[in-house]
Structures are given as structure tokens and as C-alpha cells.
Amino acid sequence: MSRYFFILFLCCLPAWLWGGENYRFRVYLKDKGNDGYRVENPEAFLSKEAIARRTRQGIAVTETDFPISRSYIRMLSETGATPVVQSKWFATVVVESPDSAVVGQLRQLAIVDSVKWIWKGNLRVPAEEKDAARYVSEDKPLRNEYGYAHKQIKMLNGVKLHKAGFRGEGMRVAVIDAGFMNADRMSAFDSLRLLGTHNVVFPGKSVFAGDDHGTKVLSCLAADIPGVMVGTAPKASYLLLKSEDSDSEYPVEEDYWTAAVEYADSAGVDVISSSLGYFAFDAEELSYDQVALNGKTALISRTADLAAGKGLLVFCSAGNEGNGYWEKITFPADAAGIFTVGAIDEEKKKSGFSSVGFTADGRVKPDAVALGTNSCVIGPEGNIRYANGTSFATPILAGMGVCLWQALPWLDNRALIDLLHRTSSLSGHPDAGLGYGIPDFYKAYKKERNHGIRTK
Questions:
Q1: Shared-domain flag, residues 325 and 437
Q2: Domain total of the chain
Q3: Residues paired with 386 in a beta bridge
Q4: What pairing do the DSSP bridges indicate for beta strands 92-97 and 193-199?
């Protein structure tokens, strides 16, 4: 690039790229390079659990599973930009620099296809508490086993599935959220089977600080205090991933979420529960319009669909825009191949805030609904609270999905979604608010179990 055109390029940069902040750019590579990985040797880049999940569902390991070449990462670093997060599925690397002019250098690299601005600001690492305080539930136990959470599991006919012996044992679940404040110090999670944690936004930092949204979400799945609160999959094993930067809203959130999903896939989880969604960003010109709700446009939606293609069962919140100007589901709730969850109240009516479908290309979303108005959750001090949102309807339903898949391990992820569609309350006439309606998990179990017995 000549000096003239380089100066012209800088002069044409939008005004918001100038100032005392750092910038992050998504670099699209022409290819990923190859550090000698071969599909015949997947153990070099996937866990044995990830390989087993693919094998069980007849899914081939492909070059999309290969990591990006380390030499490519070094080449990007030599421009002065710092690699932050990457996606092997899309061959993208997010880099950070205090100097927006680095874009010109990145575009000159032979390995680079294009560069997109996706964030500006200064990240603030959440402070971690130094004391070792314990948070013990002070709620009075009730006589029924599920305590204050009884209504939300009963609504899905989940108690019977639990009594049949399916509480998530042996299932591996990733929860992708904004943070799990104090979950490591709560009596509610004393029996939590923790596979591990990973902080995508602040690598190496704890996921148990900064935001309690994920704590509440996790309680719907994994709390286990009989008489107070028992979640819908209390015996499953959990991988806790932080992908949300709570201080700002930019497209880089899609890259964080993609990295979290790829991490979960490589670690070999079976199910992902995510209560995050996006459509509007702090820089308005980067926001989406509703035409993009086709499952093929937003990076985060394409990630969700690719995850389904890897055999993961992905549950995602529909969004809480039902009363707002957007009204529709958020991204990645429009993705094909995943299960999108809306919210209802105790009267089984759609919660006013619950985002509606259909997708821009006419597919039914949400897929189904669960209790999202006055959902029972556990807050950051370890006690029962009631909260509203598809954020909580999602893990409530997802946990039952975990138990159902435990009960019916011969099904693949898509067959299980189809079974839930067929055994929900509006299976014959789905609508834009409730999708296929309220799932009956015990009915789904009996239907498929009996079918399996007849076909053997």
C-alpha cells in the first residue's frame, strides 16, 4: 500500500475510531494453515469425550476442528496487535490495539481476507473478594422435595422423570453466561459436579466474580437443597463459561460466545444452556435488523447451528424484548438446529416480556416455553429469590432436556428436539409466542421408550 493510500485510508476511518481507547478487530483469515493436524488423529485436538459424542451420533471429525496455525497467530502479533480470542470454525482471530492504524497492516498480510471493527473501550476486570465467606441458605425448608422450585419442574412434568431415575447422571453440561458470583461458596452447590471453568472475557480470571446472572441460571439446573430448591438436572456435571462483558455491548460478544461454544465442544460436553442474546450494540451502525433473523447472518447464530452439527444439544433463551420496540427473538435464538426457549407465567400464559417469532425465513421460534415469570432462583447470597426472564425459563427446560437425553441415549440431538416438539402442548398448531407450547418430559420419555421397545 502506498503512503498516499495509507494516509487516505486513515482519513476515511470513522470518527469513533479516534481517542484514548483500545480497539478490537475481527480478522477473517483466508485459511487456518496447518500445524500438522490430521482428521485420523483427533486426540491431538479434541478430548476423548468430544470424539465419543461425535462417534455416538455418526458425526465425522473434519478440518473445521483443527486449531488455527500458531504461525498465523505470530504473524498477526508482529503487526503490533494482540490476539485476544479466536474461532477455528470460522478462521477468525480477534486482535486488540490502542492504534486503529493497525488495520492497514493487518489487511496487507497475505493470510488475511478482511478486517472488521467490533469493539472499543477499556476492559475493567471485576474485583474478586478476598475473604472466604460461606453463603448458607437461610430459607425455611418446605415439605416437598423441590421446595420453592416445585412449580417450575411440575409444569414440565419433570418430577415423574426424576422419579423414574433420571436426574442428569453422567451428562456433561456447559453453562455459558455473564458470571457465577459466589457459586463456589454456596451451600446450594455443595454437591455440584464441576468439570471446570473458563473465563473467555478475562482469561485466567475467576468466573465466580463480577456478575450473578449465571449464579441464578445455574441454580435452576444444579441447586440441590431438598425442601428448599432442587434444580432440573441436579446430578449432571457442569462446565461454567463466562462469555459476556457486562460493561458494554459490542459484536465482540459474538466472538466471546463462539469461543466459549468451541471450548465446550472440545471439552466434550453433551448440552449447552445459554441465557444470552444480542441484537443492538453501543455503536448503532453495528446493530442488526430483523431481516437478519434467518439463522445464517449473525456470527453467533451460525456458531449455534455449527454446534448442533457437532452433536451438541443447545438450549438458548428467546430474549426479553416482547414489550419493546424489537419484540422479536434475539440472536442466536434464530439458529436452526437448536432449542429456543420462551417464557410463561404460572397461568401458562406467555410472559409479556418474552420475545416472539417467527424467524425471518418463517421457521417456528421459540421452540417451546417454561416458567419465566417469578421463577425460583438462588441469588448471590445463597438464598431463594424470584426472577423474571427467558434467562431462567431456559435452564429450567434445559435441565429436563439433559435428563431426557440421559434416559434416551440412542437419540441424537435433532431427534430429541423433534421428540420435544411432538410432545408439547401445541404440537399440532405452534404459534409465534409459545412455539410448540409446554413440553411434557415424562410423556416424551414414555413415547420414545415404548417406541424403542416395539422396534427392537
A1: yes
A2: 2
A3: 376
A4: unpaired
Tens of each residue's pLDDT in the chain, 456 residues: 433 333 333 334 443 344 458 999 999 999 999 899 999 999 999 999 999 999 999 999 999 999 999 999 999 999 999 999 999 999 999 999 999 999 999 999 999 999 999 999 988 887 777 677 899 999 999 999 999 999 999 999 999 999 999 999 999 999 999 999 999 999 999 999 999 999 999 999 999 998 999 999 999 999 999 999 999 999 999 999 999 999 999 999 999 999 999 999 999 999 999 999 999 999 999 999 999 999 999 999 999 999 999 999 999 999 999 999 999 999 999 999 999 999 999 999 999 999 999 999 999 999 999 999 999 999 999 999 999 999 999 999 999 999 999 999 999 999 999 999 999 999 999 999 999 999 999 999 999 998 765 444
The reply to whether 258 and 207 lie within a common domain is yes
- Helix 252-267 and helix 299-309: axis angle, to 10°? 10
Structural domain ending residue among the three candidates 101, 121, 141: 121
CATH code, domain carrying 253: 3.40.50.200
How far apart are alpha carbons 88 and 71 in whole angstroms? 14
What cell was used for 219?
441454580
Clarify whether residues 335 and 441 are in a common domain: yes
Q: How many CB atoms lie within 10 A of CB 14?
A: 10
Burial class of residue 426, CB neighbours in 10 A (0-12, 13-18, 19+)? middle
Phi, psi of 113 (to 5 degrees): -90, -50
Answer whether residue 291 is part of any domain.
Answer: yes
Q: What is the CATH number of the domain that holds 83?
A: 3.30.70
Are residues 157 and 116 part of one domain?
Answer: no
Instruction: Let me know whether 255 and 398 are in one domain.
Output: yes
- What whole-number distance in Å separates Cα of residue 51 and Cα of residue 40? 11
**Domain presence at residue 127:** no
> What does the alpha-carbon distance between residue 54 and residue 64 come to, in Å, rounded to a whole number?
14
Q: How far apart are the first and last CA of the chain?
A: 68
114: containing domain: 19-121
pTM flag (> 0.90): yes
> What b/e string do you get for 207-235 counting C-beta neighbours within 10 Å, with b at 16 or more?
bbbbbbbbbbbbbbbbbbbebbbbbbbbb
In a domain, 141, yes or no: no
**Directed axis angle between helix 252-267 and helix 48-56, to 10°?**
80
Is 137 among the domain residues?
Answer: no
Q: Are residues 83 and 201 in the same domain?
A: no
